[in-house]
């Protein structure tokens, strides 16, 4: 039991914590002493005018613990690595943050059923570059590799590795690569994104320890509604500790897209284009139809990968048409 001294609201020191779960007005905060169910101090909430959600999963906060064991969030630390989308409805145009302090965003693909989708990967990578997130690719179902798939996939594996993206290879069926992935994910906050059927849920089941292990040290309040996906939460990989690792699980995850990327910003999100962007004849070149385009020239000379250029053009069209979701 904590000393009565600590329960004196005038005396209690602020405690640092990590927001694990957000259910409307209640926030489960992981501290070194366990999970505390917190509200937000009203004054703090009012100061957050341009974000639709002042506290989200992944936020690093300071809390005050009440005598009854509940808590109040009194401060939020500065966010990095935000995953957000533009809010809809009443708060249209405002930034809607889904997860804060994301260390790495992973796109999951499969060898076959469904086959690797470079268009999806490129849209995901563009989103990650635009937001300044670290990104990686998980290639699942390696047990389905055959000669034909190998040739096709080998090309893209080499391409994305050469661009500097981290690659992991797994088979949930055989267990190959799952331990390596778990090790990689066991510090920091991560998200897994990918099209239907590639094995995201299967990977989560393989990665997350059994339920009774997962619940270690978690308060009663946290266990409520565990199986619903209505609320955003950080799922612990292994031991529950503030530095992670966690996988962010949120209903909004699938909706993030190219939302606010403008045509002029797009080429900067293709890492291999960057060093040449000043070399086109026209400073506002969209690398589409303009004469004297250095990017097109390099593609024709095989110095830049035509597959990525095609993705660029597809995304440029999407932006021009206003159809900007990653998954389409
Ligand atoms: N052969 C093989 N099959 C796998 C592997 N991982 C998952 N599957 C199968 O692929 C199918 C889809 O897996 P899910 O985990 O449901 O895929 P998901 O990405 O969660 O799909 P959505 O929830 O629809 O987005 C299931 O039938 C899995 O059993 C794997 O490594 N190898
Ligand atoms: Mg699933
Ligand atoms: Zn150009």
The termini sit apart by: 53 Å
Largest beta-sheet characterization = 5 strands, mixed, barrel
Instruction: Work out the helix count.
Output: 11
Q: Bound small molecules, which ones? A: guanosine-5'-triphosphate, magnesium ion, zinc ion
Overview of this protein structure:
Helix 3 (118-131) crosses helix 11 (306-321). This protein folds into 3 domains: 4-80, Nucleic acid-binding proteins (OB fold (Dihydrolipoamide Acetyltransferase, E2P)); 99-255, P-loop containing nucleotide triphosphate hydrolases (Rossmann fold, 3-Layer(aba) Sandwich), CATH 3.40.50.300; 263-321, Orthogonal Bundle (Ribonucleotide Reductase Protein R1, domain 1). The chain has 328 residues and is of the alpha/beta class. 28% of the residues lie in helices and 23% in strands. The model is unreliable at 211-228 (pLDDT under 50). Strand 6 and strand 7 (95-99) form a beta hairpin. The chain has 11 helices and 13 strands. It has a 5-stranded mixed β-barrel with strand order 1-2-3-5-4. The protein has a two-stranded antiparallel sheet with strand order 6-7. The protein has helices spanning 4-7, 42-47, 118-131, 147-162, 178-185, 200-207, 211-214, 220-223, 263-266, 294-300, 306-321; strands at residues 15-23, 26-31, 34-40, 60-65, 71-76, 83-86, 95-99, 104-110, 135-140, 166-169, 188-193, 232-236, 244-249. The structure holds guanosine-5'-triphosphate, magnesium ion (MG) and zinc ion.
């Amino acid at each position: 039991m904590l000393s009565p001294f600590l329960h004196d609201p005038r005396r209690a020191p602020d405690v640092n914590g990590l927001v694990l779960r957000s259910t409307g007005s209640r926030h489960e905060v992981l501290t070194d002493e366990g999970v505390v169910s917190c509200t937000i101090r009203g004054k703090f909430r009012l100061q957050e005018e341009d974000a639709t959600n002042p506290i989200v999963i992944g936020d690093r906060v300071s809390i005050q613990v009440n005598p009854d064991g509940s808590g109040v969030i009194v401060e939020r630390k500065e966010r990095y690595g935000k995953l957000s989308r533009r809010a809809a409805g009443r708060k249209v145009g405002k930034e809607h943050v889904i997860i804060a302090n994301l260390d790495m965003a992973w796109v999951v693909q499969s060898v076959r059923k469904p086959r690797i989708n470079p268009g999806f990967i490129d849209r995901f990578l563009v989103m990650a570059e635009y937001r300044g997130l670290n990104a990686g690719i998980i290639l699942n179902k390696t047990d389905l590799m055959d000669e034909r798939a190998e040739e096709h996939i080998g090309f893209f594996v080499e391409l994305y590795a050469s661009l500097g993206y981290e690659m992991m290879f797994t088979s949930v069926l055989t267990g190959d690569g799952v331990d390596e992935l778990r090790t990689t994910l066991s510090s920091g906050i991560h998200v897994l994104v990918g099209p239907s059927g590639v094995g995201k849920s299967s990977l989560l089941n393989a990665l997350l320890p059994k339920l009774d292990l997962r619940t270690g040290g978690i308060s009663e309040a946290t266990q409520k509604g565990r199986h619903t996906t209505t609320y955003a939460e950080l799922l612990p990989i292994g031991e529950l500790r503030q530095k992670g690792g966690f996988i962010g699980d949120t209903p909004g995850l699938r909706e993030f897209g190219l939302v606010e990327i403008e045509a002029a910003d797009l080429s900067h999100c293709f890492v291999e284009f960057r060093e040449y962007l000043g070399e086109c004849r026209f400073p506002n070149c969209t690398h589409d139809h303009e004469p004297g385009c250095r990017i097109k020239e390099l593609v024709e000379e095989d110095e830049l990968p035509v597959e990525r250029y095609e993705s660029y053009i597809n995304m440029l069209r999407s932006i021009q048409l206003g159809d900007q979701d990653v998954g389409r």
